[in-house]
Design a protein that fits this description.
Order of helices and strands: HEEEEEEEEEEEEE
Number of domains: 2
Radius of gyration: 32 Å
Shape: rod-shaped
CATH class of the largest domain: Mainly Beta
Number of strands: 13
CATH superfamily of the largest domain: Immunoglobulins
CATH architecture of the largest domain: Sandwich
Largest sheet: 4 strands, mixed
Oligomer: single chain
Number of helices: 1
Strand content: 35-45%
């Protein structure tokens, strides 16, 4: 009598049962924790009022992990909780701050740190209401206030030095 080997049939049947009955796909995948979470830019500096290029997360294995950030990002920036992308247009100056970004699911989590600094926008233009200005010696003059576009100026300077005119942080005034 011939001996029949059950081993190949058993292995084939076990493999079929393990893969489920959904056309060979895995209908109940094993959930794995996120791993290798990192960002394209780990220390970013942005300017108020300027849309940023999205800082995209780089992760070895995504594994359907929602993303969260602590503390909250600067006003105008947001974190997409599905993709992990940081995007937006910052609206407020913010000193360098470390943000802890975490991808997590039921199997575990992965955390990375991103540093974000938001600087004020630079002044773009500067003009004076009276230009050119002509003043008479010994006659008081009205303030000639500057106007500009872009960010606020933190200070003003003039080259060459104006003769006998006091320079304030907001306008020129005084006597010539």
């Amino acid at each position: 009598m011939r001996s029949f080997r059950w081993t190949p049939v058993f292995v084939l049947a076990a493999g079929f049962l393990q893969s489920g009955c959904s056309g060979g796909g895995n209908s109940n995948p094993r959930l794995l924790p996120p791993s290798g979470l990192s960002y394209a830019v780990s220390a970013a500096t942005y300017k108020v009022g300027t849309a940023i290029t999205a800082n995209i997360r780089r992760q070895v294995a995504e594994r359907r992990a929602p993303i969260s950030v602590i503390p909250a990002l600067p006003p105008g920036l947001s974190l997409n909780s599905s993709t992990g992308a940081v995007s937006g247009t910052p609206t407020t100056v913010s000193a360098a701050t470390s943000y802890s970004i975490t991808a997590s699911n039921a199997a575990g989590s992965a955390t990375t740190t991103v540093s974000i600094t938001v600087n004020p926008a630079a002044p773009a233009t500067l003009a004076y209401a009276t230009n050119p200005a002509t003043y008479n010696v010994g006659v008081a003059i009205a303030a000639n206030a500057p106007a500009g576009a872009g960010g606020a100026a933190a200070s003003y300077s003039v080259v060459p030095t104006l003769p006998w005119i006091r320079l304030s942080t907001t306008a020129f005034s005084g006597r010539e």
